[in-house]
Amino acid sequence: MILEMKVPSPGESITEVEIAEWLVEDGDYVEKDQAIAEVDSDKATLELPAEASGTITLKAEVGDAVDVGAIVCLIDTSAEKPGGASEAASSSSGGDEGSSSNAEKDLDEQKAQKEKKEDSEKAPQPKQAKETYASGVASPAAKKILSEKGVDASSVSGTGRDGRITKSDAMEAKPSMGSPVTGGNRGESRSKLSMLRRKVAERLVSAKNETAMLTTFNEVDMSAIFELRKQYKEDFKERHGVSLGFMSFFTKAVVRALELYPSVNSMIDGKEMISYDFCDISIAVSGPKGLMVPVIRNAENLSFRGVESEVKRLAIRAREGEITVDEMTGGTFTITNGGVFGSMLSTPIINPPQSAILGMHNIVERPVARDGAIAIAPVMYVALSYDHRIIDGKESVGFLVAIKEALESPEELLMDNDVKKALEM
């Protein structure tokens, strides 16, 4: 029986996927539920499992865009698994005859290759163009183009009559990368962008072009959080099985600030503004296929333990390529942490259709003023990029200040005056 395998729907609104990689070869025997391909949608990379055991025939190439529901391969479920007794008996019964046939085949192939080589050597070689007075001379149009590109005419081979440089030659000419190179590797390579990467690129450009994006900055003294983590980190991990990281403090601070400034938890839809009474926080994590943004649902209802557990779960699924489209769909606000890569300061780009994104950065000991004296403290710069069409400057600055206040006074503003209880929930 021949089973037709069709592309399953990865999620709502996705009508097309791209074959990122075949994990099997045409003609291979595959087991049921074995991963046979990786497919890219505009939101995630997903594995395609075999629906049955049998011999596979591929019907799409790597890089092909395939509609959801289209046939990508055939599986012959009646085929026997290789390595069985019947196959071994068959190969041994035709031993002499098969080896004789193979030897004749090898001789024919060697003869054909030899004849091909001789024909190629006899083929007429292209004649070298003669140097003339016109060689390397650019036409007026070509000269103008080369001048604009900063390309020396002597570095261009002319294809026109008598070696003259034509307009087409000038348009194809590439400017040199700096001064003449005397040695070293100068290679380059090209590779097709995955559908996910192309979609990310489109969304980033769209966010820059279609929003009135602005970024405001502040700095946070992380001393209080350092002290709390030092005091409760070991007990927290032993009790809950997850570390007490910075993300739970930032998520709780963002939730508090969104409640104080609801316009930041809103989006533009045509001529209307949609405001949400829940906080679905998107967190940017690095995966094998690039940046992914899974969502912590209803973060306003989660404790420190709940946030840390969810962050760990989503990060592991993203790294292992198991994250689903549904887990990355939606989100009312995004947090991105460039600090894990050593970033001191950045202007994060809004994750559309959201209206704002918070950028965390690395923590560095810096001099700060305390009670008229200079002290050294762990300081993080934070950035809020926001859509000025829907969020005013006063609200954006107030929102970031609210985050700063919560992080610098976590016991008072994030833990309901009961640190132990909040951490043990």
From TrEMBL:
GO molecular function annotations of the record: dihydrolipoyllysine-residue succinyltransferase activity
Cofactor: how bound: Binds 1 lipoyl cofactor covalently.
Pathway: Amino-acid degradation; L-lysine degradation via saccharopine pathway; glutaryl-CoA from L-lysine: step 6/6
Membrane-spanning parts: none
Cofactor entry: (R)-lipoate
Keywords assigned: Acyltransferase, Lipoyl, Transferase, Tricarboxylic acid cycle
Pfam family, one: E3_binding
Catalytic activity: N(6)-[(R)-dihydrolipoyl]-L-lysyl-[protein] + succinyl-CoA = N(6)-[(R)-S(8)-succinyldihydrolipoyl]-L-lysyl-[protein] + CoA
Domain Peripheral subunit-binding (PSBD): 137-174
Documented EC number(s): 2.3.1.61
Extent of Basic and acidic residues compositional bias: 103-130, 161-172
CDD domains attached to this UniProt entry: lipoyl_domain
InterPro entries associated with the record: 2-oxoacid_dehydrogenase, 2-oxoacid_DH_actylTfrase, Biotin_lipoyl, CAT-like_dom_sf, E3-bd_dom_sf, PSBD, Single_hybrid_motif, SucB
Compositional bias (Low complexity): 80-102
Keyword Acyltransferase: yes
Lipoyl-binding domain segment(s): 2-76
Listed Gene3D superfamilies: 2.40.50.100, Chloramphenicol acetyltransferase-like domain, E3-binding domain
Keyword Coiled coil: no
Region of interest (Disordered), residue spans: 80-193
Purpose of the protein: E2 component of the 2-oxoglutarate dehydrogenase (OGDH) complex which catalyzes the second step in the conversion of 2-oxoglutarate to succinyl-CoA and CO(2).
Family: Belongs to the 2-oxoacid dehydrogenase family.
Record's protein name: Dihydrolipoyllysine-residue succinyltransferase component of 2-oxoglutarate dehydrogenase complex
